[in-house]
UniProtKB/TrEMBL annotation:
GO terms for biological process: DNA integration; transposition. One of its GO terms (cellular component) is cytosol. Residues 1-82 form the Integrase catalytic domain. It comes from Lactobacillus crispatus. PANTHER family: TRANSPOSASE, TRANSPOSASE INSI FOR INSERTION SEQUENCE ELEMENT IS30A-RELATED. It comes from the Bacteria. This is IS30 family transposase.
């Protein structure tokens, strides 16, 4: 589930994860579990408001320069990711 994936990632990031901003998708319906188990506040962006997630949008733009949309990340080698 998305909750489990976020919890696993949060455990790897430890104290580097300060907040989490997500959309209103059903995959984040269990956001309270993430907040409770990680101590990280979860915020919700408004629909059709990418400016509320500026850092995320910028990061996606940078990634798309190197990884075309639709290309599975699993197919990338470690050297391509570094």
């Amino acid at each position: 589930s998305m909750t489990q994936a976020v919890l696993e990632l949060a455990s790897q990031l430890q104290d580097k994860l300060k907040t989490l901003t997500v959309d209103h998708g059903k995959e984040f319906a269990n956001y309270q579990t993430i907040e409770r188990q990680t101590g990280t506040p979860v915020y919700f962006a408004h629909a059709y408001s990418p400016h509320e997630r500026g850092s995320n949008e910028n990061r996606n733009r940078v990634l798309r320069r190197f990884i075309p949309k639709g290309k599975p990340i699993e197919e990338l080698s470690n050297s391509e990711l570094t």
